Amino acid sequence: MTTTSDSYVMCAGTPSVEVYLRLRSGSGLSPKTPEMARAGLPGTWHGVTVLHDGEPVGMGRVIGDGGCFFQIVDMCVLPGHQGRGLGRRIMEELVGELERRAPDGAYVSLIADGDARFLYEKFGFSPTAPASVGMHRTV
After folding, report:
1. Does residue 10 contact residue 90 with C-beta atoms inside 8 Å?
2. Residue 104's domain is classified under what CATH number?
3. Containing structural domain, residue 44
4. pLDDT score, position 62
5. Which residues touch 4 (CB under 8 Å, ≥6 apart)?
6. pLDDT tens digit string along 56-73?
7. Residue 20 maps to a domain
8. Could you give the CA distance from residue 112 to residue 45 in angstroms, rounded to a whole number?
9. 116 lies in some domain
10. Which residues are 12's β-sheet partners?
11. Where would you tag: which of 11, 52, 80, 92 has the fewest CB atoms within 10 A of its CB?
12. How far apart are CA 113 and CA 89, in angstroms?
């Protein structure tokens, strides 16, 4: 547990299903069902949740195979707590853990929505195009 400024506390670990769903919907990320969250959250390689006065206000997770490939997902901070450097602190925690535990040469990816790319660039992430293009499909 790491204390940040303004009574924010960063806790390592996977969020509960309820916290996960509440933070995703409250921050504007696409909604997920409880069934999806219950199935997906155990795949967390490393996660952090930001608490303010004991209440969850932000989170981020790393998922992956533990060796070759990792992806940063679920980066979010509730609107009333944005603009205080919490996204940066979440990224510091996630990238720090990747640098400590992931094997040399592991591929780390993420999807940058909107201006979030400017934050991610500060941590060494760069667009893959034109060499490759991110693609997705929803089932």
Report:
1. yes
2. 3.40.630.30
3. 2-121
4. 98
5. 10, 50, 85, 86, 89
6. 999 999 999 999 999 999
7. yes
8. 20
9. yes
10. 48
11. 80
12. 18
